[in-house]
Write a structure and sequence with these properties.
Layout (H helix, E strand, L loop, with lengths): L1 E3 L8 E4 L6 E4 L13 E5 L6 E5 L16 E4 L6 E3 L1 E4 L2 E6 L5 E5 L6 H12 L4 E8 L5 E7 L4 E7 L7 H13 L5 H9 E6 L4 H6 L24 H13 L3 E8 L6 E3 L9 H17 L22 H9 L2 E8 L15 H9 L2 H7 L4
Parallel strand pairs: 3-5, 13-14, 13-15, 15-17
Antiparallel strand pairs: 1-4, 2-3, 4-10, 5-9, 6-7, 6-10, 8-9, 11-12, 12-14, 16-17
Amino acid sequence: MNISSDFDGGNIEIIEASDPENIRLNIARDNASDFYQWFSYRVDGVQGRSLTMHLENAGGAAYPKGWDDYSACCSYDELTWFRVPTRYENGVLTISHTPSHETVYYAYFAPYPWARHEALIAHYAALDGVRHEVLGHTLDGRPMDLLILGSGSKTIWVDARQHPGETMAQWWMEGFLGRLSDPEDPLALELLARASFYVVANMNPDGGVRGNLRTNAAGANLNREWGVATLERSPVVRLVMDKMQQTGADIVLDVHGDEALPYNFIAGAEGIPGFSPRDLERQKTFLEAYKAAAPAFQTEYGYPLGQAGMANMSYATSWSAAQFGCLSMTLEMPFKDDANHPDPVFGWSPERAAQLGHDVLPAMLAVVDKY
């Protein structure tokens, strides 16, 4: 038996692995940070062997409530990811599984590798009607890709994976971009005629490749850098902010994942200074249209509404709402499952996240002219 995490997005520390039924592991911290929760590792030579894997430091993770009712993701081919029996007791996360193949992968959520990101960008950059720009480079030297679609007068910005371990956000992007670029989808064509879309499919490539949950190569949490970002600490945020200042924004959607809540929901910018009844009405219109278009989206559960004037202005949603007076929102998806539509085999999955991305277009169309 061999356990490894020396690959794109890998993260695990081996304490003791001589007994397959008592494998002792730790989740490594994000580099230059105390955050940790993302894990991704490979086990070889274990076909038909009963594995019991204890992640012993789970209780000290960034969001321990994320382990309640959680099931780890598993794959034999890194394409299809299913859930395996997992329990959380006394600060230890225990994964139990008997693989049917010699090689098996386990992860906090289905990974989204850098190679897949590059293929995504190459695919859309080659399409008619899509423009591709490299805004600059990350601290580790990776290109900061921007896709631009549409020719309308309104401006819509969509970004994902500020927190690199929230990989469901980039799976969402696949569904969103797939529908938005479909030349036979009348709703997409209508949106592209009314708006110009600026899409950053992966805001934190370095963190993703390094196997981080929440930070970039400098240990910065990108969703605390808006308005204060520098090229030395968080160049991606600085580059996107500068581009947004050039284009303006009418709608901003920042796509994330939530460790604890088993629902898909929106967090708005209610706490920024000057958030008005008109802003609230635009947001409500978006929420109701999204709920009507996407069965997996709901409005009953989510974060408490922000208190007036108490917003953290270094969040992307807060900064952009205040900067442009736009409809700015954070979309959250679960690491666990959609409690309203549970799937015991796959949980919340890449395919379901992509469907939620596909289904957002009617909500955008419902509000695009409300300015």
